[in-house]
TrEMBL record:
This is Restriction modification system DNA specificity domain-containing protein. GO terms for molecular function: DNA binding. CDD domains: RMtype1_S_EcoKI_StySPI-TRD2-CR2_like (cd17517), RMtype1_S_Sma198ORF994P-TRD2-CR2_like (cd17494). Pfam families: Methylase_S. GO terms for biological process: DNA restriction-modification system. InterPro entries: Restrct_endonuc_typeI_TRD, Restrct_endonuc_typeI_TRD_sf, Type-I_RS_S_subunit. Belongs to the type-I restriction system S methylase family. It comes from the Bacteria. Residues 14-195, 221-384 form the Type I restriction modification DNA specificity domain. Transmembrane segments: none annotated.
Length: 396
């Protein structure tokens, strides 16, 4: 039977198969001359499709000076679907989004195909169906191209989707819109926490905000010290290429920014040759492309020449995190092909610091803020996994 694994109670009819040309009328977008962009009517293009859960006029990045005829011919109104016509990757070509603004219209660009709503369907539901595996497989398997992949109106017209009655479509749409709002709210909460932390770091390290000791007194004047005086800096050395491995029985190899995410080391590749090593608790910092990304490691690992290990306190970790946030490494980086810093640059970096007790108090405060943000990120991951599971179970 054409029914999903997960279903709301009260619905038992089979889902019907339809071709997209029964639901949508397709058209390619505007190709205006370069002087026409940057003003005029809101203009939907590639990034609007890729970067939004749904499209509203206020979220659209670009604009174009369009004639009255073009405004009529290329109008995008509530319920219309927008497809990515061309992409460098097969995975992205034909991805769609939906226009849900009921008050304002827009127009669309030449790298976009509009599907004009010509039948009764729940727009958000159809967008979800079209970005699910069955429809995506139909589109990507027929996409043409070598360096770029393309889809046309004829390919989209022949795509078949399975859809329930409109009442069930609306029920599913409402569910996912509510779930998406929860995800958006959680993302906003995380962003606010991170902005608050950044603001507090700015105040702390500029000494605008001073912590007190247990007796309410000052911790004393801060001193400027070189990083090499207060921490051990170990520059990485890459193993030979033939010793790289995907076997997790070997030693984790940390090569650069790709091996770090959200302040943590993410094991990705391994090595049977040990060159330079880091220990649990070390600060890992990328020394090129880009410079200054940091993570705390909880494992012993081999470090390649794209990183260094800094054996120091949590105060140093937070200061380096702040130093990276304000992009201060840019003034020290060197190299024409990619940015880089050397061991001397790192060891001679000036670290402003209060007494050890003051450093501990600052580090403790900032660590608590970081832990709070991490917990909120974990909640976001749970919501995103729930959405993924529902999507897999509710669409046939």
């Amino acid at each position: 039977m054409n029914v999903p694994q997960l279903r709301f109670s009260g619905f038992d009819r089979e889902w019907e198969e339809q071709e997209l040309n029964e639901l949508l009328e397709f058209k390619n977008g505007i190709n205006a001359d370069k002087d026409s962009y940057g003003y005029g009517t809101k203009f939907i293009n590639v990034l609007d499709i890729l970067n939004n859960d749904y499209i509203l006029s206020d979220k659209i990045i670009g604009s174009v000076n369009a004639s009255e005829k073009q405004l009529e011919t290329y109008a995008v109104t509530y319920g219309d679907m927008l497809f990515l016509r061309s992409s460098e990757t097969r995975e992205d070509v034909g991805i769609c989004n939906v226009y849900l603004d009921q008050e304002k219209s827009a127009v669309f660009g030449g790298f976009v195909i509009r599907g004009k709503k010509i039948a009764d369907y729940s727009p958000f539901f159809l967008k979800a169906v079209l970005n699910n595996s069955s429809a995506r497989n139909q589109i990507t398997s027929k996409a043409g191209g070598s360096t770029r992949y393309n889809v046309g109106q004829s390919i989209l017209s022949e795509v078949t989707v399975r859809v329930p009655q409109i009442e069930e479509q609306q029920k599913i749409s409402s569910f996912f819109i509510l779930l998406n709002k929860k995800i958006e709210t959680q993302q906003e909460k995380i962003e606010k926490l991170e902005q608050f932390k950044k603001g507090m770091m700015q105040k702390i390290f500029s000494q605008e905000l001073r912590f007190k000791d247990e007796d309410g007194g000052e911790f004393g004047e801060w001193e400027n010290k070189r990083l090499g005086q207060v921490a051990e800096v170990i520059m990485g050395q890459s193993p030979k290429g033939e010793n790289y491995s995907t076997d997790n029985q070997n030693t984790v190899l940390i090569q650069g920014n790709a091996d770090m995410k959200n302040g943590k080391v993410i094991p990705r590749i391994y090595t049977s040759e040990i060159t330079k090593t880091c220990l649990p608790g070390d600060i890992i910092m990328s020394v090129r492309a880009p410079v200054g990304e940091i993570a705390l490691t909880d494992i012993e690992a081999c470090i390649g020449r794209g990183v260094c290990a800094i054996r120091g306190s949590m105060y140093i970790y937070h200061y380096l995190s702040y130093f990276n946030l304000i992009k201060a490494w840019n003034s020290l980086s060197q190299g024409s092909t990619f940015e880089s810093v050397n061991g001397n640059d790192i060891k001679t970096l000036t670290i402003p610091a209060p007494s050890l007790k003051g450093q501990e108090k600052i580090a403790d405060y900032l660590t608590k803020l970081e832990i709070k943000a991490e917990k909120e990120k974990e909640k976001l991951m749970v919501l995103e996994e729930q959405k993924k599971g529902f999507m897999q179970g509710m669409f046939v």
